[in-house]
Amino acid sequence: MSILVCPYCKSPLIDSAERTYVCENKHSFDLAKQGYLNLLPVNQKRSKDPGDNQMMISARREFLELGFYDPLIESIKSLVAAKLSFSSPNIIAFDAGCGEGYYSQKALNELPGLSTKIWGTDISKHAVKNAAGKYKSNFYFVSSIYNLPVADASVDLILSVFSPVMEEEFKRILSTQGYAIVVSPAPNHLREIAELIYENFRPHTTNILEKMSATFQHLHRERTSFKIEMGSAEEVLSLLKMTPYYWSTAQERLENITKKTELSVSCDFNIDIFGQ
Ligand SMILES: C[S@@+](CC[C@H](N)C(=O)[O-])C[C@H]1O[C@@H](n2cnc3c(N)ncnc32)[C@H](O)[C@@H]1O
Ligand SMILES: [Zn+2]
Questions:
Q1: Distance CA 265, CA 237 (A)
Q2: Which of 123, 125, 269 to mutate to test the pocket of ligand 1 (most atoms within 8 A of CB)?
Q3: Number of structural domains, the chain?
Q4: pLDDT digits (tens, 9 = 90+) for 159-192
């Protein structure tokens, strides 16, 4: 069953013939070649090409597929098994700010004891195109988490990894027994990279708890920390390229990192679970 509603009039979006989705008011949306829908109304675009660009998306995919962050995925899966309970093993999971889809595929698939139908959205059409092109059994669409074209109470589990959160929309789309898992950087995340760029390292802070706690019950926080060992200049560069530092720092400041052939880097994540 579809969780999608029309972004204009909010009535259900129906998969009609000829790769087109329509609502009862005849708003229609064509399925792109890669199998995704663009449900972001033009008047909700803050820029011509919102969200991460294709270079950022490719860099994220290249790094994530090296597997360095997979311990995070194992932590998410273990937490779902240990802390969450669902009334049915068939659940609808939703990746909010899915990027190129690595987490929806690796973390939400094969959750122990659960059979998951996976949906994902991102405001970047490049992200969604890459996710849909690779992970064919999940359904991806372009939209903003601030105005989701998703029916009320239609989702059992939201996953948000390093993406903006919008608590009211998360609350609206979650079923009464649904959960939201939010992953954000903990204080020492990528500390060694930041230390090579800035004179003074400032530990990460997050306002996730303040933001989410007015709307949700905070059920659990797990801090997952591990070191990753980069063994070549290519690996160091692929990590650097998926950080905001690479895109916002002058090239000469990055040179003492891009020349490195070995680097040990701290990864530090907070995984927060929210319920109703
Ligand atoms: C740091 S990336 C994380 C992507 C993915 N979760 C991952 O960890 O690989 C943040 C993502 O949020 C997306 N994003 C930014 N603003 C958004 C919004 N208002 N609605 C949906 N996605 C948004 C960006 O396009 C980008 O793909
Ligand atoms: Zn409509």
A1: 13
A2: 123
A3: 1
A4: 999 999 999 999 999 999 999 999 999 999 999 9
